[in-house]
Specification:
By secondary structure, the chain is α/β, with parallel strands linked by helices. The chain is built from eleven helices and nine strands. Strand 1, helix 4 and strand 2 form a beta-alpha-beta unit. The relative contact order is 0.11.
């Protein structure tokens, strides 16, 4: 059950339209379905505010279809699928209508929310970081956030970033995505007055160690207000940014 459904149910109890026992029975309705290979969580949105997201890597197209159909059967019409390759997306789309975002490796069943709030800025050090950034951007939009992309604004040409000072200063949350030495997060952290979520990417030459150098650099940032997620984890950064952006009953 979604939070607004629970509120409506509680209001019906207060108005005498349903008994307390009847309401309890509806709330206790089985929170998941055992499919054998997965247990879709139908109460995720009521607990955390966001419906369960399907992680596509390692799952077959048939398993993703089964999980999606289970969600749909229990009222979840809009479904986000991350780390989904094109071949699986095509198989899923033959059974369920799916919009595929090729660069982000994301599939969406249903639709994006029409209402979006706040402002999340997603900045990348280089063009090679865009696949991770697009995972973050599409996730951010699906979670109901106004999302601005600032791509290829790395420290090798710092003037490119400084040309967007207004966007940085007016953001509610910034996601800074970079490989190599990962310096972008520290620079943005020194300019912004909002939380900065750093995403190290596996972009870089040998000594970058597939993103480890950027990860350690971001963890050791001297700029205050910078937090760090795992290497290439655009989804995790966007999820955290969305939680921050929606705090405090934001209704812009």
């Amino acid at each position: 059950m979604e939070q607004n459904e629970i509120k409506k149910l509680l209001q019906n109890v207060a108005d005498g339209k349903i008994s307390a026992d009847g309401a309890l029975l509806r709330i206790k309705n089985k929170p998941f379905e055992d499919l054998g290979y997965a247990k879709p969580d139908f109460h995720r949105k009521s607990r955390q505010g966001v419906s369960e997201v399907i992680y596509g890597a390692g799952k077959t197209a048939e398993q993703i279809i089964g999980i999606s159909q289970s969600f749909a059967k229990h009222g979840q019409k809009d479904i986000l699928i991350t780390r989904l390759d094109k071949e699986k997306a095509e198989k899923i789309n033959s059974e369920i209508t799916l919009k595929y975002y090729d660069t982000a490796n994301i599939g969406i069943i249903g639709s994006m929310p029409e209402k979006r709030v706040g402002k999340i800025v997603i900045a990348t050090g280089g063009t090679s970081d865009i696949p991770v950034a697009e995972e973050a951007a599409v996730t951010s939009e699906m979670l109901g956030n106004n999302t601005m992309r600032l791509y290829d604004v790395g420290v090798a040409g710092i003037h490119r970033l400084l040309a967007h000072t207004d966007e940085i200063m007016t953001a509610r949350v910034i996601i800074a995505i970079a490989g190599m030495e990962g310096a972008l997060a520290s620079v943005i952290g020194g300019l912004a007055d909002c939380p900065v979520i750093a995403v190290p990417t596996s972009v870089g030459y040998g000594a970058a160690f597939n993103g480890l150098a950027a990860l350690l650099s971001m963890l050791n940032s001297c700029a205050s207000g910078v937090s760090v997620v795992n290497i290439d984890n655009g989804f995790g950064a966007a999820y955290q940014a969305s939680m921050i952006n929606h705090m405090g009953g934001l209704n812009e």
